[in-house]
Structure formats: structure tokens, C-alpha cells
Write a structure and sequence with these properties.
The complex is a heterodimer of chains A (432) and B (455).
Chain A: H1 2-11, E1 23-26, E2 32-37, E3 43-50, H2 63-70, E4 74-75, E5 78-79, H3 80-88, E6 93-98, E7 103-110, H4 113-128, H5 134-151, H6 155-168, H7 181-184, H8 189-199, E8 205-211, H9 215-226, E9 248-253, E10 258-268, H10 275-287, H11 293-300, E11 308-312, E12 319-328, H12 332-349, H13 353-365, H14 374-386, H15 393-403, H16 406-416, E13 423-428
Parallel strand pairs in A: 2-8, 9-13
Antiparallel strand pairs in A: 1-2, 3-7, 3-8, 4-5, 6-7, 10-12, 10-13, 11-12
Chain B: E1 24-28, E2 34-39, E3 45-52, H1 66-73, H2 85-92, E4 96-101, E5 106-113, H3 117-129, H4 135-154, H5 157-169, H6 183-187, H7 191-201, E6 207-213, H8 217-228, E7 251-258, E8 263-270, H9 279-293, H10 299-307, E9 311-317, E10 326-334, H11 340-356, H12 361-377, H13 382-394, H14 400-410, H15 414-424, E11 430-438
Parallel strand pairs in B: 2-6, 7-11
Antiparallel strand pairs in B: 1-2, 3-5, 3-6, 4-5, 8-10, 8-11, 9-10
Helix pairs in contact in B: 1-7, 3-8, 9-15, 11-15
The chains are: A alpha+beta (432), B alpha+beta (455).
Chain lengths: 432, 455
């Protein structure tokens, strides 16, 4: 069809697309910096992350999260109102929070100098001189406690908390990152201050800068941000994850119309040699939205659930491999059977050649969409920096996907997903 | 599902108005299909969206939620492509896709490498007129939608309260119905109902095709002609107005659901940009929402969460771009030891302040600065830009409103904000709902309601 061809030519831009070029260096105090220059919009995204997530809580479950949440409630000579006003009066957007592995603060701002300078100065003071005063501490603690109470009205949250506990037992990944009512209610401002002093140090920081700043501006920005931080040291590596000794099913009674089902075990970590095999395999099994095997079996063929999916959540240590769905209470048993059979068949047989081909076409064909906005690019660069992945991670990504075979996926799943060790959590009304 | 695209965060600084933003190009096919294209060459990708002028506010009683049900069925095959093939082809071409339904629109989208745009057009053109609705597929998908409803609404205390609240607040406006539909209506859809709904609304002259990304407008227009020009237009009968009657006094309700925290939601009847006699009133309400909840420095956070510490969370929202008049909403959860009534009165007190005193210069400047910065940040995402154009066009405002937004907000004065507060945020236009949490792990039937005190 000649018309079609010439339209196509007009449509495509002739440029070949290279993945982002990441510049990397260290500040004099040992913070690692990752910088990508992007053009076209007068804006920049800046992130500072620390190995200071809930895995560093110790016995004080929730202290990492509360520390991150308190940073912008008072710093230097400014209170929370001043800080918010300083950012918002220049249109900047600031956020701070924590996950299992990391605590981070992020800033999105325009690059126009007076606006940028004000936003950056505010971030720098928050980062290096937070106050943690008693009033702010009590208020944020109370808000956290309210949030923890609210989790108890959500079957999804209850299921997730029980799931991590079942997978990780005594490991620091086992507890919920916002903590528990019991632990958070005992915290004092000194606990938060202590956590901050131990982990928010230059040697434990990475800085990510993505946007329309020159290299020189990026260097100055990075240096300015962390100059007030003590050098400190990186924390010791987290303990290894111990696999559950046997499979367990834990039903939790809850007065919901649906039962939430979570099945899984500790899966893979960021630097795992098997990562790409597991990633592509999971894409086929339950990671590709509307076309995965799980979606097909659970939703398309049987109408058992609105969502049915699986994921590996790679962390510093093996994060969860998680298969989940939600279904009407009285068909829970059937849904769990379909889920388990789909998973078991996949582990035994692996994907077909046709499925693998389709998955590769999807992943490679959609490669540019992984970092088509500054926002997405920032989170990729941050991931590469935090987990210390090769700087050419994005450049070699497609090649790594291409190398995966049916045999390599099948072997990796056999190594990593032992059906006899699966933990199954169900939250809902039983027998009805 | 409910989108607030031009939310409360938006800004102004003249220095950027010279940053030439690429213009939107518009083309209409002979069959009535409107095509909008915006170039963005920062990434070699394209977002393609088809917007239909139909949503839950178009639905008569008895078939509420049918627009959303039809959205699900649009993935279930055409004469040419059997069920599931649409998604398989998009996936094999490296694409992401999905769809969403709102009160005033139903939209379908694909994000792909720019060279794959013809794949999206071919499939969207096909399902615009040649959907194959099958009873067996409907039977299964009906279960899926029922599960979706359970997850989103039935097992979520806040969502449930919000559903009951809308049903009370509106007398005759179709906004009283949930987008996903009432359970009895969902259970009773027949293939004929869906067929009739599809015939009535899915036609090129009731749709807008929005394309944003690494493309040239003329090439996109040619491609659209190639794939969509042969589709026949329909006669689209105008919607009945269903204008909400005047509210004649405050309305209050209690929603008792298993939950842990109480909360309160308040809504004043207000016009939207589409229904306001004076456009400036709608923009003033938008700024007013920003004064209350345009960030951490806005009044609700500053006064209620931090200052008085009466709330653990508090939010305000205005739907500038809804097709019909809607509600200016306030929603908050009391701090431990505070009641929903204390919180309600604190919220009302904030409204009274807005009626009595002019907002200060700093607040107005802050909102304008946020609006301008957001106008830059939004351009980071092709998807967001396409959403904005598609939505404005579909609710009947016209995509040009996107370009006017920053300057319109910039023109809003402190007096205008006070005046809309005085005119619309009145007790007689107010609706209030309280969430009264019931015990979760006991059977409420065994516990007399009188045992509960406080909310």
C-alpha cells in the first residue's frame, strides 16, 4: 500500500534515539552524583536519597518514615508555614518520604535563577538543618497514628502487611514501613533526631539531577546541597534474607465483599544475575497488564477479578515475588486454584516461544516510553544510582532483554520460585 | 476515573510567556471527526487518544454505569478482530493502552513509538463503528465490572460515603449517579442495552482524536483521513439539559460503614466554567480552591492541620471543567479527640473568612506562580497534554481554553474571590455528610446503634 508507506516516512522523525547519557561523580564528602542534561523545558528535578528506609528502623518500626515526613516541618529559622511558602511562591514542588530501602527528598522547580535559587536554598536547609521540634513531632506522630488506624479499614493494606510478615519473619523487610500503632506511639522526638543523625550523612547520600542545568550548574548544585552534612559512613549491609521453611496459608477474617489474595515468596534483588530472566518471565506471567497469562486465565476467561497480576519487587536484598487478585468472597477458593495452577504450569513449562517473542516485542518496542518524561527518567537514574547499577544500564537494557530465552526463563523461575514455599494470605469474609 | 485535570495547582511569571509553546493544529474530517495534534519532539513517542462525548452524566435511570460497561466491552472484539486481539496487537507493537470513563467523557488511549501511530489508528477506527457485542463476553465482563465496583466502592469507606453524598446532594442532575453505576443497574445490562448505547454515541461526529508527540500535524491528518474517513457519521440527538433545580436549604446525612476513622465532606452548589454566566466567576472559584488547598502553604493545611491541629487531613476541590454545574467540595478527617462537628464548624469558619476579608497579595501571587510553573511541568508529559485537550473539547469548552488558562487565572482579583465566596458558598446551597465508623471485627447487627456515640 504505497500511500501507507509514505505516510509512515513523513511521520517518523529521522533521529536515532540513544538512551540518556548519565554523568557521574562524587562530591568531596563522598556523595555520589548522577546527572542527566535534558533540554526543551526550563525545569529541573533534583533528588537526594539515603540508605535510610524502613529496613533501617531496627526495633523502632516506622522511625524512618516519620523522620522523612518531619523534614519539611521546620528547618533553620523557618517553620512549616515558611518552608511551604518559600517553595510554593516560586512554583516549586517538594516532597520527602521513604520506602523499604531508601529515604528521599525530591524537588521539581523552574530553572529561572531567582526562582531556582530560592527553592534550592530551602531544600538545602531542610536537608542539613531540620529542627524536629516537639510540637511538629507530636502533630506528625498523631497524623501517622491516624493513618495507621485507617490501614485497618482497608483489606488491601491488611493483606499487604500480613504478606510481608509471612515472607520475611525476623528480617528488617518484614514490618510495614509506616510502622505499627504499638511502636509509633512510643516514639520521642529524640528517636527521630537520632535516626537522622545516623543515616542522613554525606557518605550515605546519592544526588540525582535531571533537567535543563549545565554540568557546571549541576556540580555547584550538588555540592551546595550536601555541604552542611557530616561525612559519616555508609551503614553496614542489611542481613541476608532467609527463605520461609515451608508454604503457609493464612486466612484473615474481614467484613469486606471481596477477598484479597496475595501469594508469593522472597524473589529477587537488583543486582541479581537472573534479574532479566525473571523480569521477562514475569512480564509474560502477570506483568504485562491486559495481555498476561494471569489476566487471561483469571479475568478474560472466567471474569473472576478486576485485576490479576504478578510482580518481582527487586530491592537491595531479595524483595517479594507477589501474585495478587481480589475476588467475590464465595469464589475465593476457585480463584486461588486458578492462580496457583497458572503459576505452577508456568514454573514447570515456562513460556512458549511465541509468548517470549511477543513479550520482547512489547518491551523493546516500548523501550523509549520508559524514560520519555523527565519524571520517569529521574526515577530510572535514581534507581541506577541508589542500587549502584552500571551507568550504561539503559543502553544495554534492550540487549539484555534480547538475550533472554525460554530455557533461561524456565531455569530462573525454577531456581527462584519454589511452589512448596509459597505464602498465601487471604483477607475477606470466609465461607460466604 | 474522575479527573481534575486543571486541578488546583497552576502559576504565573511573565518571563516564560515568551517560551514559544507549540501550537495545537486542528482538522475536521468530512464525517465530523475532529483531529487535534500537538508536536512534542522531546521523545520519539506518540500518545493517541480517542474521546467520545458520552459518560455517566449522559445516562438515564436504570442503566447507570453503561458508558463504563461499554468501555470494557470495547476490548471484546470487532467483526475483524476477535476479543483480546486489540490488546495483543498493541502490546506486540510496544504499546501501552487503556481507557477511562468519567461523568462527561469516555476515552481510549495508546502510547507507542511514533512510527506505530498507524497501528493505533487502524484499530481505533475499526472499533469506532464495528464493535461485536456478544452475550457470552458480556456475561463475563459484567462480573469483572462488579468486582471493580466492590474494590473501588463497596469495600472502601470513603468512596462509599462519597457515593451516598452525591446521591443526596443532587436532586435531578445526572451527577447524582456513580460513574461505575448502581449495583442493580450493573446486574441488569443486556446486550441490546449496550448495542443501543454504542449505536447512539460511537460515531466519528461524536468523537475527538487527539495526538501528541513526535509527529508532524499534516502527516497525522493524512493518516487520520486514511483510516477514519470512510466511517459513517450518525445523527447525534442533543442531550436533554437536566439542569439541577435550585437547592432550598442545607442537606445533611450520616453514612454508617465499617471503618476506623470518621470524616466529613461538604459541598456547595457552584457553576462550572461551562455553566457560569460570567466566566470570571469560574476562574475565581478555581483560585479560591487554591487559597484553601493549593499546597502545603494553603489555608487548610496551615490553619486546620497545623495551626488548630483539628484535622489530620483536609482538602478542597473545584471541578472547573465539568459539563454541568457541580459542587465545591471540602473534605476532612478530624484529629484524635476532635469531632466531625467541630471540624465542620472550623471549615465553615474558613469560608466565612473568605467572605469577610480579602485574600492577601502573597496568597494570590503564590497561586499565580504555581499556575505558571505547572504550565511548564505539564509539558513534561505528552499524555497529560493530550488529556487536557481531549477533555476540554469533549465537555464542550473547546481546546483553546487550555491556552487561556494561565492568563485567565492571572486576571483574577482578591475582590472576585471574595465575591464568589459571598455568592455561592452559602448555607442554603450546602450539603454535608458525616462518616460514622462502625466496628469492623464485630457484627454490627449484634450491637445496638445507640451504643455508638460520637463520630
Amino acid at each position: 500500500m504505497p500511500i501507507f508507506l509514505c505516510l509512515l516516512l513523513l511521520l517518523c522523525s529521522p533521529t536515532l534515539w540513544a538512551a540518556a547519557k548519565i554523568d557521574h561523580w562524587q562530591t568531596p564528602h563522598g556523595s555520589r552524583v548522577y546527572y542527566v542534561h535534558t533540554e526543551g523545558l526550563p525545569m529541573v528535578d533534583i533528588q537526594v536519597a539515603f540508605d535510610a528506609g524502613s529496613a533501617r528502623d531496627g526495633q523502632q518500626f516506622g522511625v524512618a518514615s516519620l523522620t522523612a515526613g518531619l523534614l519539611d516541618t521546620g528547618a533553620g529559622k523557618w517553620n512549616a508555614d515558611d518552608i511551604a511558602q518559600r517553595f510554593e511562591s516560586v512554583g516549586a514542588v517538594f516532597g520527602a518520604g521513604s520506602t523499604i530501602d531508601s529515604a528521599s527528598m525530591s524537588l521539581r522547580t523552574l530553572t529561572d535563577k531567582p526562582l531556582f535559587d530560592k527553592a534550592l536554598e530551602t531544600m538545602q536547609v531542610i536537608l542539613t538543618r531540620p529542627n524536629f521540634n516537639e510540637t511538629d513531632f507530636q502533630r506528625e506522630k498523631n497524623r501517622t497514628l491516624a493513618g495507621l488506624k485507617q490501614q485497618q479499614e482497608s483489606p488491601a493494606d491488611i493483606a499487604s502487611i500480613a504478606f510481608y510478615h509471612a515472607l520475611y519473619g525476623e528480617h528488617p523487610y518484614a514490618h510495614p514501613d509506616s510502622g505499627t500503632l504499638e511502636t509509633v506511639s512510643t516514639f520521642t522526638a529524640a528517636d527521630v533526631q537520632g535516626f537522622y543523625q545516623k543515616y542522613y550523612v554525606a557518605a550515605n547520600a546519592i544526588i540525582v539531577i535531571v533537567g535543563d542545568l549545565s554540568k557546571q550548574q549541576a556540580e555547584q548544585t550538588a555540592e551546595k546541597l550536601v555541604i552542611g552534612l557530616p561525612v559519616g559512613q555508609k551503614p553496614a549491609p542489611l542481613p541476608d534474607v532467609v527463605m520461609p521453611v515451608k508454604g503457609m496459608a493464612q486466612p484473615i477474617e474481614f467484613p469486606s465483599t471481596q477477598t484479597h489474595v496475595l501469594v508469593g515468596l522472597p524473589g529477587t534483588y537488583r543486582k541479581d544475575a537472573d534479574y532479566f530472566n525473571l523480569y521477562v518471565g514475569n512480564h509474560i506471567l502477570g506483568g504485562s497488564g491486559l495481555v498476561s497469562k494471569l489476566f487471561e486465565e483469571v479475568r478474560e476467561k472466567r471474569g473472576l477479578a478486576y485485576s490479576a497480576s504478578s510482580a518481582f519487587i527487586p530491592l537491595l536484598k531479595p524483595g517479594p515475588f507477589l501474585v495478587s487478585l481480589q475476588t467475590r468472597n464465595d469464589q475465593t477458593e476457585q480463584a486461588v486454584q486458578v492462580l496457583n495452577k497458572t503459576l505452577a504450569d508456568f514454573i514447570v513449562q515456562g513460556p512458549s516461544e511465541a509468548e517470549l517473542k511477543a513479550a520482547k516485542q512489547n518491551i523493546i518496542g516500548g523501550f523509549a516510553m520508559r524514560f520519555d518524561t523527565n519524571k520517569k527518567l529521574t526515577s530510572y537514574v535514581s534507581m541506577i544510582g541508589f542500587y549502584d547499577l552500571p551507568l550504561d544500564y539503559l543502553d544495554t537494557f534492550q540487549q539484555k532483554i534480547e538475550q533472554v530465552s525460554v530455557a533461561s526463563i524456565t531455569e530462573a523461575f525454577k531456581r527462584r520460585v519454589n511452589p512448596a514455599l509459597l505464602q498465601t494470605i487471604t483477607v475477606g469474609k470466609r465461607g460466604k | 476515573m474522575k479527573n481534575r485535570i486543571l486541578g488546583t495547582l497552576l502559576i504565573f511569571l511573565p518571563v516564560f510567556s515568551s517560551q514559544a509553546e507549540t501550537k495545537v493544529s486542528e482538522h475536521r474530517l468530512n464525517n465530523g471527526l475532529k483531529v487535534l495534534v500537538k508536536e512534542d519532539h522531546r521523545s520519539p513517542i506518540v500518545v493517541s487518544q480517542v474521546w467520545y462525548k458520552v459518560g455517566s452524566s449522559y445516562e438515564p435511570g436504570g442503566v447507570t454505569g453503561i458508558s463504563h460497561m461499554l468501555e470494557h466491552m470495547m476490548f471484546k472484539g470487532t467483526d475483524k478482530h476477535p476479543a483480546g486481539e486489540f490488546s495483543r496487537i498493541i502490546a506486540e507493537n510496544g504499546g501501552d493502552e487503556n481507557a477511562f470513563t468519567g461523568q462527561d467523557y469516555t476515552a481510549y488511549f495508546q502510547t507507542m513509538a511514533a512510527s506505530k501511530l498507524p497501528v493505533s489508528f487502524e484499530l481505533e477506527a475499526d472499533r469506532m463503528r464495528h464493535l461485536h457485542l456478544l452475550a457470552d463476553e458480556l456475561k463475563k465482563e459484567l462480573e469483572v465490572v462488579t468486582e471493580e465496583r466492590r474494590m473501588r466502592t463497596d469495600d472502601n469507606p470513603q468512596a462509599k460515603m462519597s457515593e451516598h453524598f452525591s446521591a443526596m446532594a443532587y436532586s435531578n442532575s445526572p451527577y447524582k449517579h456513580p460513574i461505575i453505576g448502581w449495583p442493580a443497574d450493573i446486574a441488569s445490562y443486556k446486550v441490546e442495552d449496550l448495542q443501543a448505547w454504542y449505536q447512539r454515541w460511537y460515531a466519528p461526529n461524536n468523537a475527538t482524536l487527539v495526538v501528541v508527540g513526535d509527529v508532524k500535524p499534516q502527516a497525522v491528518f493524512d493518516l487520520a483521513e486514511h483510516y477514519f474517513a470512510d466511517l459513517k457519521p450518525s445523527e447525534i440527538k442533543p442531550l436533554k439539559p437536566q439542569t439541577e433545580i435550585e437547592q432550598l436549604g442545607i442537606r445533611k446525612m450520616t453514612v454508617k460503614v465499617p471503618a476506623k476513622l470518621p470524616s466529613v465532606v461538604m459541598g456547595y452548589k457552584v457553576p462550572s466554567l461551562k455553566t457560569a454566566t460570567l466566566e470570571s466567576e469560574a476562574y475565581a472559584l478555581e483560585v479560591l480552591a487554591g487559597v484553601l488547598d493549593g499546597g502545603n502553604s494553603a489555608r487548610l493545611s496551615k490553619e486546620l492541620v497545623r495551626g488548630k491541629q483539628i484535622a489530620v487531613s483536609a482538602a478542597a476541590g473545584y471541578s472547573l471543567t465539568s459539563r454541568l454545574s457541580s459542587l465545591f467540595e471540602l473534605e476532612a478527617t478530624p484529629a484524635e479527640g476532635k469531632t466531625v462537628w467541630e471540624l465542620e464548624s472550623a471549615l465553615k469558619n474558613e469560608i466565612i473568612k473568605l467572605q469577610r476579608e480579602l485574600i492577601n497579595k502573597e496568597e494570590l501571587q503564590r497561586i499565580k506562580a504555581q499556575v505558571l510553573a505547572s504550565a511548564v511541568y505539564e509539558r513534561d508529559s505528552d499524555f497529560y497534554q493530550a488529556m487536557q485537550l481531549g477533555m476540554l473539547e469533549t465537555v464542550g469548552l473547546g481546546w483553546q481554553k487550555a491556552d487561556e488558562y494561565v492568563s485567565k487565572i492571572n486576571n483574577v482579583t482578591a475582590e472576585q474571590v471574595r465575591d464568589v465566596a459571598r455568592k455561592y458558598l452559602l448555607e442554603d446551597r450546602l450539603n454535608v455528610a458525616y462518616l460514622d465508623p462502625q466496628p469492623i471485627n464485630e457484627h454490627p447487627i449484634n450491637k445496638p446503634a445507640a451504643n455508638k456515640k460520637g463520630l
